[in-house]
């Protein structure tokens, strides 16, 4: 019995989306950080970058996480390899859960700047941006002490 043409198309689509998920993958990138983060000198700061993919689960082989500060690479996960500059880290074990956040340890003035988290997933790509400032006035620094006894 021959399949009707429309059914055949659906079948081909179904098989394609199963076999080649990167062709039909869907990506959404967001952040839980404010667009301007005011960090406390000497403290650790988390820059949030969260992504959702469809279909699930996350396929690390088509994932490329690229964090830049003022257009220079600070951290990357690509082809199962991670690299980052000193005092900066991703959480590789969290990537499968869609968490590509960046932590900066003991932040100081050299880490100020415009951060971009760019995620490529197969053919999809999206990014979010966060500006990192350092608290400098005595009042602002007093708040840092207050939240961390
Ligand atoms: C992402 O991972 C970091 C580090 O473990 C954690 O602090 C943060 O809460 C996570 N964010 C989400 C949305 O799960």
TrEMBL record:
GO terms for biological process: regulation of cytokine production; T cell receptor signaling pathway. It is found in: Membrane. Keywords: Immunoglobulin domain, Membrane, Signal. InterPro entries: Ig-like_dom, Ig-like_dom_sf, Ig-like_fold, IgSF_BTN/MOG. Residues 1-25 form the signal peptide. It comes from the Eukaryota. The keyword Transit peptide does not apply. Its main location: membrane. GO terms for cellular component: external side of plasma membrane. The keyword Membrane applies. Residues 21-129 form the Ig-like domain. This is Ig-like domain-containing protein. It comes from Pleurodeles waltl. The lineage of its organism: Eukaryota, Metazoa, Chordata, Craniata, Vertebrata.
